[in-house]
Amino acid sequence: MNLLEKIVSIKKKEVYQNKITHPIKKLENSILFKRKTFSLVKNITKSHTGIIAEFKCKSPSKGIINNTVSVEKVVKDYELAGVSGISILTDQYFFSGEKKNIKKSRSIVSLPILRKDFIIDEYQIIESKSIGADVILLIAGILSKNQITKFSKLAKNIGLEIIIEIHNEFEINKITDNLDIVGINNRDLQTFVVDYNNCLRLSSKISNNYIKIAESGINNVNHIFQLKKKGFKGFLIGEHFMRKKNPGKICKDFIKSLSKKN
Fold first, then answer.
1. pTM score, two decimals?
2. CA dihedral 112, 117, 118, 122 (to 10 degrees)
């Protein structure tokens, strides 16, 4: 069993448990479920930089990244830095993520929030809306094309935007109509190895009807210009900011140097 299979196996148990403790009816009656969502697509389209900054404390491959900063400070600083959106990890077992981090962030920022998790069940989509997310991530590597179609339809119906994440050519075939953004991940989720050229290789194979975002291993401004030439509009950056004592400041400096060269 590779790491991704292990993650999915644990996620199934977690979702089963959550359905019992927080049934769908309860989620649909929450205050946040009824709110109008913010659009990441809109923000990326009008942005010069397209940075989606991530709050991530830990990863299976790198261990602890940063466990001293508060989510409230980081997301507020990200917003002040001028990001297009904020990504928040909610997987607890492997990433030390917490769903309450989205709830906490929702009350203090007016930006689209991406719930970053391993979505394998429609329940998690309802749950995402109920905790204050605006965007969900569907990982092609763990879902069939039918699941992606079904999940994206449900997400759309409740006002969420969808990023489909792909890593290889085979997964391009899983891109369906209801999706808003195609994210190309430089990280292979089976091995967690990063190949910096993966985005550059796959970009031309994706229709320009979709907004393309690059994920993983992005840590310098020149890399972004290289990706922009290939049609990428958004850039998801987590570790590069979170490794530092003050992620928001590093993010602000990064966006500043990006804007100067634009």
1. 0.95
2. -50
99, two tokens: 């769903």
Q: Give the other-Cβ count within 10 Å of 35's Cβ.
A: 14
Beta strands in 146-231 (DSSP E): 161-166, 181-185, 211-215
- Among 43, 64, 61, 65, which residue's Cα sits nearest to residue 52? 43
| pLDDT at 61 (0 to 100) | 76
CB 211, CB 23: distance < 8 Å? no
Q: Which residue has the tokens 């990706």?
A: 227
174-189 in b/e burial notation, b at 16+ Cβ within 10 A?
A: bbbebbbbbbbbbbbb
Which residues are designated catalytic? 54, 56, 116, 165, 185, 215-216
Per-residue pLDDT tens over the stretch 70-114: 999 999 999 999 999 999 999 999 999 999 999 999 999 999 999
Pairing of strands 51-55, 58-59: unpaired
